[in-house]
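question for whoever is on the cluster today: can someone run the full assembly for these? two chains, 1045 residues total. i dont have access anymore since they changed the login thing
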Amino acid sequence: MPTQKRYALGLDVGTTALKAVALERERGLVAQVERPHELRSPQPGWAEEDAEQWWQTCQEALRELLRQIPADEVAAIGVSGMVPAMVLLDSSGRPLRPAILQNDARSALEVEELQAAVNADEFFQVTGGVVNQQNIDPRWRWLLKHEPQVVARTVSLCGSYDFIVWRLTGQLSLEENWAVESALYDVRRRQWHQPYLDQAGIARSLLPPVHAPTEIVGGVSAAVAEATGLQAGTPVVAGSADHVAAALAAGLTQQGDILLKFGGAGDILYCSDQPEPDPHFYFDYHDIPGLTLINGCMAASGSLVKWFMTQLAPGCSLAQLDEEAAAVPAGADGVLALPYFLGEKTPIFDPMARGIFAGLMLHHRRAHLYRAVLEAVCYGFAHHLELLREAGRPIRRICAADGGSRSALWMQIAADVVGQPVTVVAGEAASALGVAYVAGMGAGLFDRWEEITRFIAQGPTYWPRAEQMALYQRGFFLYRDLYRRLQPLFPELAQLADVARLIQAQAEEDLSVRSSLNSAQTELNRERKP
Amino acid sequence: MEALLGIDLGTTGVKAAIFAAVDGRPLASAFVDYPLFHPRPGWAEQNPADWWQATVKAIRSCLEQGARVGVQPSAVRGIGLSGQMHGIVLLDEAAQVIRPCIIWADQRSEPQCRWMTEQVGAARLIELVSNPALPGFSAPKILWVREHEPELFARVRTVLLPKDYIRYRLTGTMAMEISDAAGTCLLNVAEGSWSSAVLEAIGLDPALLPPVVPADAVAGTITEEVAALTGLPAGTPVAGGGADNACGAVGNGVVRPGLALVSIGTSGVVLAHAEAPHVDRSGPTPRIHTFNHAVPRAWYLMGVTQGAGLSLRWVRDYLGLPERALERWTDLDAYELLTREAEGAPPGCAGLLFLPYLQGERTPHLDAYARGGWIGLTAAHDRRHLIRAVLEGVAFSLKDCFTIITAQGLQLEQVRATGGGAKSPLWRQIIADILGVELAVTNASEGPAFGAALLAGVAAGLYPSVEAACEATVRVVESTAPRPELVTLYARFYEQYRALYPALRTVFHALAGLS
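^ ran it for u. tokens below:
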């Protein structure tokens, strides 16, 4: 009698950790494992990780999971991860150098080169996005300049989870969203865009075959089975970009479903049944065939809260700050903040944008400023929603997840600011759960995408309140106005800061010259004395 | 030893201090506080009776202290008064106070300002009194009482300013000293006499106003009754004295052309000595005040930024929890801890600016709805940048005042710094770099009381003139030179700072509606 396959395994390769889960077809998540990852920044702006370490943590996690569930009941394995990480493999399939992560900023110069080389409209029409530092082209140009010997030996390129799939199965593949985010891919024709490949100098042969998330790439190899306790031949699907898997795990299965992620950054994902990209957003395919995910990323969200705590409320807990801020009326009594502390990605694409606290009065205290920060992030989300509405995209349901969604105050502000109910979904190991479901769909363990909702832990729903909504509508108008008015000043401010740094450096140099002169003088005097 | 007594009637309390006439050395000092009332938001009132009791107490306590160091009351050759400007003390026929004094900080008389400006004509008003009608000034406050409390107003026989009321209690003589009278909006500042044209246009009886007297002449002598009350010898001469800012200038030797005073108290003041009553005519409304100085036939031009020390106090009170905690464990106060942290941030704060309009702004915007803010924040900024930006922002707002003053054709060779904020070497350096002038600190202590004492010395004949009094007693003890490379850098930051308010004005006004 054949064993009943009941489990789908999901592995998520994240910047800070590997998370692995076992999803049982009826009971949902039955096991979870986490192993830390080490981010390296050998130079400012660089972000690298060791792909071999990912593979180590994956194997450890698999062994750990299989202590809790029987290997012969595993129907399929799915891997998700950050995208587009860049792993360069040699002819024997070994990484030639540390993986370059999606947030690596080393190729700023090459980004400018690419910007100059392409027509922005055409680039958007083809790739569905704007030129940015995540694109593969500038990174490849950087490698050609700085590490030609690595490039010469590179036989294959792939992403974070593609690399794990390769190690599990011995089959090289690329999940389609790596291709999308590489900006070398024609998102309408769904094929490589040869002119951009040529422009970057990337041979087509370097790129493994592109797969949809649920496609089974291969089975677990005998060697891996030996090493991990998995059954040889267990199907492995192509997997998923982490944010797409997280969207699935939040229940975004229909056009108009939205997820707001209150993590370190502020992500917004919009589920669409239209294939068209949007100029204000990034574009990905959904794990669900036929759907796309229009998504945005605000550079600072939770990281702003953390900054605030460190700089303006040291020693104070989040709960205490929340309690204080809850006593401040909506609109923070006239304090208005802009959250652009890290510049901004979507929807304004302005790296020179800066943070602001405006409207300060003598009676405003820490709590007002803190509330203004929470409100600013929500205004940022509202800005994205406004653009979606203007583009005629319907909004059906709004979910919220990640760290910030645990704050009842923040979620109530979010509901009041966006003017719609906001439902919190528990985002624990969300990407791993999502990609486990993708694997389960690929292996036939599940029938329908919508059924993933059975496994989603729903939190409270926050309802917008009419009075606060009206007030926040005016606040949102001012939020937009504030940026427009100050935007012309930001580049000059940044430039002045650079000039000031130079002067400072010069002054310090003078000082050291002077002090060495002084000591030379003292030395001379001492010699003269006797 | 010949001594002089200076009395400064401030907003929080009164200070009495005794100085040696020969070199201005402080010998004794006492401070007694009194309450400030806010019957409604934006209103500010004090009881003249509280002032008087506190003054008597302060004088006695100061004399007692003096006696302990060998200075007898009989050594006091003269008494000078300095005081908060603009407040109105309304007296009836029996010279009794009719209602609490509406003081300078009170903002209720905006409608009366508009009415008065219409009655006289905006341009003509400035021709006549050198200043626009502002809610802070005395005349609109008088008009408010006439409009809202007619039965009280009907009993008013005399209007006095705060320190002039105290002089009346000390001497029994009613007078209004010229530098203080300049802040009523009823004095022809250029001529130094009441403007009958303005009084007529707004229908005020000139008889309500006592004679205008000079700052450095005797305006009365101590009565027997007060002698018994305070221990001062009867007959001791009391000088006209001066407005607090005028006395602050005298105490720091800012009594000749080329000198200016920067005062960083709660608000920030930039004041320059002038030999003519220049009026800022760059816009429809002058953005600086033109007042008579306590030096005869001289004036001073003054810009006021509302939030100077106030801004740093706000940081300390609401964001300075760690510093206030540390204060208890070290012998440093929170301000010192804050400014030490600010030293860790570079000039220009890595592109971060602060607008110090926490309480609206007077110079140069005259906008009660102006608001404060940090502009240009990045994740790389930390607490040190936030604090330094406040110090720089206040200095930029002082530069606004400074710029308008120098635009009147005044050549300033030295600026002297005073007030609590001037104690910080970092803040002084920032101000010197931003203003681009040498910033000096004098030996003056005890604030405007010292200047008032010097005026008393002139009145009593110990010095031939105010200039000579300063010559004898005021010395520069420390000087901060601007650093050329930073002057250039800050000039560029200042351009950015100046662009902020015009860009944000409508947002500020809208935010006021949102709170």
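summary bc i know u wont read the tokens: The mean pLDDT of chain B is 95. Residues 90 and 159 of chain B are 5 Å apart (CA to CA).
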